[in-house]
Design goal:
Structural class: alpha+beta
Strand order of the largest sheet: 4-5-8-6-7
CATH architecture of the largest domain: 2-Layer Sandwich
Helix content: 25-40%
Shape: globular
Strand content: 15-25%
CATH topology of the largest domain: Uridine Diphospho-n-acetylenolpyruvylglucosamine Reductase, domain 3
Order of helices and strands: EHEEEEHHHHHHEEHEEEEEH
Largest sheet: 5 strands, antiparallel
Number of strands: 12
Bound molecules: flavin-adenine dinucleotide
Distance between the termini: 46 Å
Radius of gyration: 18 Å
CATH class of the largest domain: Alpha Beta
Length: 249
């Protein structure tokens, strides 16, 4: 964080007030974790909207308030029972300090491709709840559509998530080093109502990739960069997918 940065700090008590501030150019801040690290693109302007008192921090699955911390999701008994892939990914995100401050709203809105929660949210067909200030009232966008369209939505407030139906699930990740580190590849899986296994790859492409066992995304769909080649990522996906399928069997 730039030490000379001292923005006007607003702490609205309602969503309507927060949306109004966003429409006038202020930057939303959930837990502020992205502000801590130069690794994450976070361009906060001269005015900041601290969302703590404006968005719900409660969790009554399938609905989770945007202010719920990643640590609270990892420990939520209802999530652990009904949405275990989400709870497991929350528990493997970053480190305990970051998990205590980072919110689900900031994690979704931050749209970091390596986010641990991306694959579980996509495979559960989670829906993002938001307010744009353009149209009155809340709006709903499927998570993958939100990721694709967020840059064109204009100023908006993520108010929560609808995680969809509960399902048996599992989550696995591989990073480049031991301990907390950004994932090179992740796989989340669930068993749907018809008993089929649905899988999603995360952290290895610009967007989470849905697939079924035996039909893994090929190297041509995966990132090839200085962290890992596309071929290496495809091998990681194969290992992770096998582990998830085994955990679900
Ligand atoms: C040291 C470190 C290690 C990390 N390791 C991992 C990791 O292993 N796995 C992983 O997945 N992530 C990791 N992260 C990323 C971290 O999980 C995210 O930065 C964090 O979840 C963001 O949540 P936040 O509430 O702090 O968001 P903020 O930092 O407050 O905001 C993030 C972005 O979202 C916007 N925003 C925030 N809340 C809202 C809202 N309600 N509506 C609209 N826009 C909003 C902000 O303007 C900003 O652009 C790491 C971060 C750090 C600093």
């Amino acid at each position: 964080m730039n030490p000379s940065w001292s923005p006007a700090w607003h702490a609205p008590r309602s969503r309507a007030e927060a949306v109004e501030l966003l429409r006038h150019g202020a930057t939303p801040v959930g837990g502020g974790a992205a502000l801590l690290s130069r690794a994450f693109p976070h361009s906060a302007g001269s005015a900041v909207v601290d969302l703590r008192a404006a968005v719900d921090a409660g969790s009554t699955p399938p609905v989770v308030g945007a202010g719920a911390t990643i640590a609270s999701l990892a420990a939520d008994p209802a999530l652990l029972a009904g949405w275990p892939a989400v709870a497991q990914a929350a528990g493997l995100t970053a480190n305990p300090g970051i998990r205590r401050i980072a919110t689900i709203g900031g994690t979704v809105a931050g749209r970091i491709p390596t986010a641990d929660l991306a694959a579980p949210l996509a495979v559960h067909a989670a829906v993002v709840l938001l307010e744009t200030g353009v149209r009155p009232g809340p709006a709903r966008l499927p998570y993958l559509e939100y990721l694709a369209q967020a840059a064109t939505l204009g100023p908006h407030l993520v108010t929560g998530l609808d995680l969809g139906a509960p399902a048996r699930g599992a989550y696995r990740r591989i990073a480049g080093r031991h301990g907390p580190a950004p994932a090179l590849a992740t796989v989340a899986g669930v068993i749907d109502r018809e008993g089929r296994v649905l899988l999603c790859a995360g952290a290895c492409a610009p967007m989470p990739l849905l697939f079924t066992p035996g039909e893994l995304p090929g190297p041509d769909q995966l990132l090839d960069d200085d962290r890992a080649s596309a071929l290496y990522r495809s091998r990681l996906l194969s290992v992770l997918a096998d582990e998830v399928v085994e955990a679900l069997s």
